[in-house]
Amino acid sequence: MSKITLKVNGSTHTVDVDPATPLLYILRNDLDLTGPHFGCGLGQCGACTVIINGAAVRSCILPISSVKGEITTLEGLSSNGKLHPLQQAWIDEQAPQCGFCQNGQIMTAKVLLDKTPHPTDAQIRQTMNNTLCRCMSYNRIQAAIKRAAGTVADASPVGEKEVLA
Amino acid sequence: MIPAQLEDLLSTHRRGFLKSAGLLFVSLAAPNSRAADAPGPYTLVDPRKLDSWIVIHQNNTATFYVGKTDPGQGTGTAFRQLMADELDIAFDKTACIMGSTDITVDQIGSGGSTAMERDSWPMRRVAAEARRVLLEMASARFGVPVDQLSVSDAVITVKADPSKRVTYGDLIGGQKFNVTLNGNNVNSVAGKAKTKTIPELKIVGKPKQRDDIPGKVDATTKWNVDVKLPGMVHARNVKPPYACAKLTGIDESSVKNLPGFIKVMSKGNYVAVVCEREEQAVRAARQLKTTWEKPATAPFPSSEDLFTYLRTAKPAASAAPAVVGNPDTAFSAAAKTIEAEYEIPFQGHTAFGPAHATADPSNGQMTIYSNDMKTYGMRRGVATFLGMPQDQVRVVYMPGSQGFGRTAAEDAACEAAWIARELGKPVRMQWMRDEETAWDTKSPAFLVKMRGALDAAGNLTGYSYEARSCDYNHIGYNEPDTTLIAQLMGQRRTKVTEGSASVPSDMYAIPHRKMTGDVYALPAIWETPLRTGNLRDPNGPQASFASESFIDEVAAAIKADPLEFRLRLLQADTTDDTGFRRARSIAVLKAAAEKYGWDARPNPRPRATGKVLNGRGIAYSFRGQSMVAQIAEVEVNRETGHVWVKRIVCAHDCGFVVNPQSRRTSLECGLLHGLSRSLHEEVRFNTEKVTSVDWITHPTLRHADVPESIEIVVVNGDPNPNRPDLPLYGAGEACLKPTMAAVCNAIYDATGIRIRRVPFRPERVLAALKAGGV
Predict the structure, then answer these.
(1) Which of B391, B464, B499, B506 might form a disulfide with B519, Cβ 3.0–4.6 angstroms?
(2) Hey, of B217, B647, B697, which one would you mutate to test binding to chain A, going by the most A CBs within 10 A of its CB?
(3) Do A63 and A37 share a structural domain?
(4) Into how many domains does chain A fold?
(5) CATH number of the CATH domain containing A116
(6) Is residue B18 predicted with pLDDT exceeding 50?
(7) What global pTM score does this model have?
């Protein structure tokens, strides 16, 4: 065990744990930051994604001793009670189904838009391709990213004509 | 730490009423005490009491309690729409609590896309009854007959004197209705009130945003995996390294000095490790030394040999064939006979989040925190497994990773509960990725032999469908003796569930038909990672892949346009039209074709010369009364074998729609799941174990696979203008059914090559193209 200090979402925390512990367990179990989820523990699915130094990082395979820099979790995305534009776009597009993967989708999309404010369809597909969703809410997610980026409005609205045929 | 929402819910429910304004899903204050202090017993809720379903608060809001679970299709929001409309209260003044066994009436939970079709009816009737009772109360208060009152947004007004008005909250807020309902079971529960007719509904039928989404994107939702209890410890399983292996030894010294180690738990072939912290349990489970004896005979053939096995084995169970006309005569008189065999492998549920449950044994009771879709079945299963009275067990439903049927046959709850009782402590059990992918329940593999008899004029006069499904000992809904822990501990059912081999759903009027479905068993049916369970529209995609690909083959054989050929078979002279399915089948096919811009011609198209070959395929089927036609447009890369479904059109008719928004998103997700199963998903195994263990070895659809265009065509309507009300049918599951066939038919159109085995992974497609000289 060793004492390790982390800065997360603007707050500083010190934990006394095995330095090999993956960051995900510290965030969820010690800091009660349950936005990041366990999906695979292998860095394959993206459910555990957090942002460190502007990069989307898979916290399930990152030993806490290797963390260098401030961590942002899904909890840290909104500011002063106002949702991040991506979170609002996620609601507007009704993106999630079960929602269990959406932490990774939103955090990966945030890094994409921070680096590329107006991504092309191909850039969205490429950047998001290793962030998995078993409900297959992919096209809603892609529409939400475009909405947040202001590149395309609502991809598929439900018009009144569809209310009852 | 108990999620505040739950704490609020449980603590207030004991008093029968919510202590605050009701909108629990947005009011997530800091938790302050334990829910588990509800001492039990945890009896079921009486569906014949109006108070079991609806609570009106003093601030004129309402909370609805329903025994359903919502994995993300938006049924909770839809129930609010239906009940708010019947009650005459604004949608945003309502909340819906779902699926916890001692709080909400037993409506089973979710499954089979039955939420709107079946389970919403008692909710509508009880909400209408609450409105009726409130109007009677107002009538007594004002001394005017009910017919001289009007009600809008939970305010009752005397029509002749609008200054006389009273809110629902003023009438009954904080008090009980004390009204007893009629009905022999939960589905027939009713009061005296009639439900509204479709034209009277104001909230139903309008798109509403799902109420669960904000919390899922701003991290305020408390998920099942987030439950934290005082004194809680963490457990991880140690699975047998080989299927059906016998445990011969555990070397506890290999882990007993690890930090946080508490105990190795074992009985029969079941092994788990318990530690203080989660990462400690993960490490200890990996590090525990165990020895196992392989079974004397292989538990199953390898996935490469599975279909050879199915061709040569003897059936374990057979159903009587469904016969129309005289198919044998049709085949013996045929001018031409067409035959083809289709293969569908085992496909996993592979839930995105591995199995999870937290069990709390406080007060000699057992509380399970779970996202199980059938919580009431889980309660019975856990109680029976532990030998506890059912009223000492409750299941608290919380959001979790969707499992498409996996959580109807959940494993972690019995594991957590058994360990929790043995240790006398709350236990959080979670599976690892390799366990979930290898050992979850599987959708049965199918081998289907199709035959068609054509007369001299090219008419399809005879049709034969022979399915062999690998589905023996099918897992049902949380039976205590079929969960994996029970099997590993040696429990066996005396009567094995035979499983099923479904026949296709279509309305083709082929004069002579024979359809059979036989179930086959693998050598091992217990303690096996190839346990079969219900995966979203169980058996439907398999049966439709064979039947709708074959109809395409027949159309190609007579050089008919595949759409025109289907319409011809549907429009043949017949009186069979249950639920107007024939008319509605024709309607969805025509609607899909119109949206797509279908160019009538036989498949395949003349082969193009470029690197990428384009084609389009159509398929249709129905589930219950929900009709679906799909057209897939594919690009096939002849150099790599990669298939991209570039465009998909889905024409869909599920009757009356409560929330067009969530209906649309459910269909989008559902048909993409169908695409994933068409293009990627297959469980691989050798003769010792399942080798699909993660997202590399059991791949799934990804962002880059998504079609450029997904077009949902709403065909809902009823061809009978005299029908007084539009029925509601299930939306979600039906839309997976024809997808595999639509993609198969499109690949054939593009390449001239018929690939009769899913998934259409690049290596399989490339091999088929090369073998066909493409």
Answers:
(1) B499
(2) B217
(3) yes
(4) 2
(5) 1.10.150.120
(6) no
(7) 0.94
